[in-house]
Write a structure and sequence with these properties.
By secondary structure, the chain is of the alpha/beta class. The protein contains 13 helices and 7 strands. Helix 2 packs across helix 12. The N and C termini lie far apart (55 Å).
Length: 316
């Protein structure tokens, strides 16, 4: 049966014929997004950074979803992705044609999708810890991109090990909360054990705070504690709480695309510049603060049951 791929927004490219014939000199930088805890915002951060890199900085990006839930792809493509060539399959098949696994999702952004298939998931879990497995399977594709974004599943499993092993930099995405710090320490200890077994140095580790609200005293104290532990390895940019992230994912889009002036979208743009080593850029326009106030109004309305016009913002 012929495989179906999804190309939203009318993206028309002669993908198979041209992409892998134009070789880049340097292999892509591989960023793995990790946390043993679910719901920290790993996938959302990976999605939005991929879009920022591709659409705002003209970088070629390959997204690799090692999580069998497949949410990385669902957040980039509204239609159902129907392909048997999944990331899990990529890891367990000895010889692959990498072109068959790559799905274009934006003009400069591609995806290797994943979905739960019981036999393949069990096969991945049984894999020995081969060094550089993911890099070997990606093969020549690594030279066709500037960045490879790897989304790993929650939990300290074999897929997460494979993603970390491939990474030039591991990004620990931490949601402000009581158990966030404990989860980070567990991940780092676990990573140290892996690299001791492989007799290899650990990759660079950076930390980004997600779901951050400056108004909450706990969040401010949590940030100070993380800064004390990680110092310069904590990104200066924090991702602020925003209901628009959820709305964007439901549309198969990043919040950077659906609500580019909201607070979270601005944060992802700033974070992308920080990762790329670019200067911070201009301050956000007044509209971004208006979006942030609207989010507060919307949340209050949900909590109180009163219509949003009961709470007026300074810009109303």
């Amino acid at each position: 049966m012929q495989e179906q791929t999804c190309v939203p927004f009318g993206a028309k490219r002669l993908r198979q014929e041209t992409l892998l014939t134009q070789s880049k000199k340097e292999p892509a930088q591989v960023l793995a997004f990790v946390n043993q805890k679910g719901g920290t915002g790993k996938t959302t951060t990976a999605q939005n950074l991929a879009v920022c890199f591709g659409l705002h900085h003209d970088k070629r990006v390959l997204c690799v979803d090692l999580d069998p839930q497949g949410n990385l792809g669902h957040g980039l493509v509204y239609e159902q992705i129907n392909t048997p060539k999944t990331a899990d399959r990529l890891l367990v098949v000895p010889k692959v044609n990498i072109n068959e696994y790559i799905i274009p999702v934006r003009p400069t952004i591609d995806l290797i999708h994943n979905k739960f298939q019981k036999e393949q998931r069990e096969a991945v879990d049984r894999l020995p810890l081969y060094p550089n497995l993911l890099r070997k399977q990606l093969g020549s594709a690594l030279t066709q991109y500037d960045y490879v974004i790897v989304d790993t599943p929650a939990g300290l499993c074999r897929s997460t090990q494979i993603g970390i092993d491939a990474a030039d930099q591991v990004v620990l995405v931490v949601s402000c909360g009581m158990y966030g710090l404990k989860g980070m320490v567990a991940v780092i200890d676990w990573m140290a054990g892996i690299y001791n077994r492989l007799a290899r140095p650990m990759p660079s580790i950076k930390v980004v705070l997600n779901n951050y609200d400056e108004r909450r005293r706990f969040d401010r104290e949590f940030r100070r504690e993380i800064l004390h532990i990680f110092g310069d390895d904590l990104f200066q940019t924090h991702i602020r709480t925003s209901t628009r992230i959820i709305e964007a994912a439901a549309q198969g889009m990043s919040v950077v695309e659906s609500s580019p002036l909201c607070s979270a979208a601005e944060d992802f743009k700033w974070l992308s510049r920080e990762i790329l080593g670019l200067p911070p850029g201009d301050e956000p326009p007044v509209e971004s603060y208006r979006f942030a106030e609207e989010e507060v109004v919307f949340e209050r309305a949900l909590l109180t049951g009163q219509p949003p016009n009961k709470f007026r913002t300074p810009w109303a």
